[in-house]
Amino acid sequence: MASLLWFAHSICFLLFHLHFQAFPSLSFSFNSSSAAIQCQYDQSLALLQFKKSLSVKSAPSPWSFLHHPKPYLKTESWKEGTNCCSWDGITCDTETGNVIGLHLSNSLLYGSIYSSNPLFSLRHLRKLDLSLNDFNHSRIVPQFGQFSKLTHLNLSYSGFVGQIPSEITYLSGLLSLDLSRNYGLISETTTFTKIARNLTQLRELDLSRVKMSLVPLSSLMNLSSSLTFLKLKSCELQGKIPDISHLSKLVSLDISWNYGGLSMEPMIFDKLVRNLTEIRELHLSWVNMSMVEPSSLTNLSSHLSSLALGNCELKGKFPDNIIQRTNLQLLYLFGNGDLNGSLPRHNWNNSLRSLSLSFTQFPIYLDYDFISNLKSLETLGLSSCNFRVLNLELLGKLTELSKLALSSNNFSGRIPSSFGSLKRLSHLYLSYNNFSGEIPSTFENIRQLQILWLQNNHCSGPIPHYFTNFTLLYILDLSNNQFTGPIPFQVSRLSSLLHLDLSNNLLNATIPPSVFTLPELWCLILNNNQLTGHLGPFQDNPLRYIDLSNNMLHGSIPSSILKLADLTVLILSSNKLVGEVSSAVCNLNSLQILDLSNNSLNGFIPQCLGNFTNNLSVLHLGTNNFHGTIPETFSASCSLRYLNLNGNQLQRRIPPSISNCRNLEILDLGYNKIEDSFPYFLETLPELQILVLKSNKLHGLVKWSSTYYSLKLRMFDLSNNMLSGPLPSGYFNNSKAMMNSDVKMEYMTAPNYPYDYSVSLTLKGVEIELVRIQTLLTTIDLSGNKFTGEIPQSIGKLKALKLLNLSHNQLTGNIQPSLRELSNLESLDLSSNFLVGRIPMQLTDLTFLQVFRVSDNRLEGPIPEGKQFNTFDKSS
């Protein structure tokens, strides 16, 4: 599940990684069978039973959008009583009629292939391709290892999960094995070791996206020297790459995008490039090569056509002659921030088709010479570059371009109208600039667009109606601009759309109903606009992520949204929604984040929310009108990290089962009507950092006896209750988080998704909602209770404390001089108690203090003078 969610998240938010990544796959050659060859009856029957065992999807698998041609249902031609050798996707032996090839790539198949499937009776198979289908998160069963004559096996992009069965290594005659991009597939150490040792005839191996984090890199040294194609991209590999120079026949090597887990020493690299004399494609992006001299690249084979070294931490000057090599078609150097060099002013390599210098120090002269040398370019990446001469209009002359990235350059003014001449453009990235004004009308000509990123600019005006003509579009991100008006009504024409983000604009009117029924939509992000109307109805689609927060939507939550089986994030906060929350919400077993806060929802909180899924990490139902009780049963497998029920009318007790949520970091139950004693069991939560129980009817003593579990607590708010007895000195003695002021400033966010935690807080006398919580913020608010006794000296240990409010209690004794040790304190309120004596002069050492209140006590003498205290009014 985690791997699938990672993929959903990467689709929504990390598609920058796909900017210029080609997706070559191992291709099988299937010869058409002559209709005169008669198929064997038993094999024809097995094929028909195999067809019957699977269903057909009306829409292609979520992976097929990366590929062409368009998927079609090959099994539609499979008819009983006809010769199976004439069926689509079938190859038969010309002499025996045995089925030797099954090619069903991108055939809209859906379901699970179990060990009893009739497929495994086709013992004569030599080539099997089931790629780009959807096998529903099922496992690759061991029976795939029974095809003893198999030479080619392709199960890529097919939704398989779990361990690769070791039986795959029985296929000793395999020439080509492709299990790539099954998000959730894992290779154990022993399985990969057997692949390396047993499949000695292997020529092509692609395990990209297979999780191999535990596989020792030394096992790469056992791979067959016959390999010509090796692809281990994004496999979570870690460690130093060993000497694999024995793979001297390699034509293509890709161990890129293992996200900094790999490194290569200069000696290993030098040996590799000298021995790979036939290499044509070398992709090492994200391999740490910081010690490798760029000059050593000159030893690469003259056959080299594709070189990808993005984010390799290369430093210094890149060799000029690499760029001018006549065979070179692809050069990616993006992300090497300390890499520079000079681009030729004339006589460029005419073979170059793809070039990315994004996030490097190469000087870019975007002038007529630059453009005239690159008219054959199909991919150009110049995000965050060092422009010396800039004429963006000239880019319109690169009419062969299909991918163009110009993000993060601080470009200003209007988007060049000449871009409308780029009729082949499929990927356009203009995000994180300062473009303004309306989108040029010439964009209407770019009918091949598949990805359009315009987020984080200052573009304005309406969203052009002709966008709905971009029927190939699968990612549209116009967020963080100033677009106005309605969402184009004919958005239903964008039937391939996977990701729609129009957030943080000035859009108004109702959301077109067709938005909720887009058949392929994974992510719908429309938050922070002025949209009105009702939600839904939603149709059965693969939606994973919905954020419609901070709009003016009204009505009830439609039951159809609670039937989206794949939904992982649902954020509908800060609207005008009414009605009850149906217990059907607990049918969303994949849900990780549920935020319905700041609406006018009422009724009871469904009791099942405490234990309906092990995936839920965020539950925010604050600022509504819920009544009744907090769900009583939080299961032992509770994964909650953030629970916020603040601002409702909840009564009775705080359920002890909350202590089952061992990952809980924030608990906010403030502003309710809870009548209970202090929930001492919360001290057993090892990750708890923020506890807000303010403005309830809690009573009795605050028992906090643990010597361990309060170590991380750094926001502690029990204000406006009826608590009594001494202040909880046990907490002050054990709060290590408040004792350590040397903390890196970060914001508390949910795992897997960009969701910021929030909490209500009285800060310097003002009630606010902290929509982002800094890890530096440390507060104690025990005001408005009936605490008695003296202020413990141990409070002085809390050196990271920024806010301390003990006002409106019944505290006695002196103000402790040890408070001077609170060197980061910004607000101190001890007012409305029974404190006596003088204000200690030592408090003037609190140089960050901005709020100081000690009024309505029995103190004597003047307020000390000096430093910050000179700024305080005598009424303090």
Question: Could you characterize the architecture of this molecule?
Answer:
The chain has 876 residues and is mainly beta. The protein is built from eight helices and 62 strands. It has a 31-stranded mixed β-sheet, covered by helices on one side. The protein is globular, with a radius of gyration of 32 Å. It starts with a helix and ends in a 17-residue tail after the last strand. Residues 1-25 and 29-34 have low confidence and may be disordered.
Report the structural category.
mainly beta
What's the CATH H-level homologous superfamily of one domain?
Ribonuclease Inhibitor
CATH topology of one domain: Leucine-rich repeat, LRR (right-handed beta-alpha superhelix)
The whole-number mean of residue pLDDT values reads 89
Q: How large a portion of the residues is in β-strands, by DSSP E?
A: 15-25%
Helix count, DSSP H or I runs of 4 or more residues: 8
- Give the end-to-end Cα distance, rounded to a whole number of Å: 56 Å
> What is the CATH class name of one domain?
Alpha Beta
Which value, in Å, is the CA radius of gyration?
32 Å
Specify the overall morphology: globular
User: What's the β-strand tally?
Assistant: 62
Major sheet details: 31 strands, mixed
CATH architecture of one domain: Alpha-Beta Horseshoe
Helix content: under 10%
As residue ranges, the low-confidence spans are 1-25, 29-34
GO cellular component, one term: plasma membrane
Subcellular location: Cell membrane
Protein name: Leucine-rich repeat-containing N-terminal plant-type domain-containing protein
InterPro entries: Leu-rich_rpt (IPR001611), Leu-rich_rpt_typical-subtyp (IPR003591), LRR_dom_sf (IPR032675), LRR_N_plant-typ (IPR013210), RLP23-like (IPR046956)
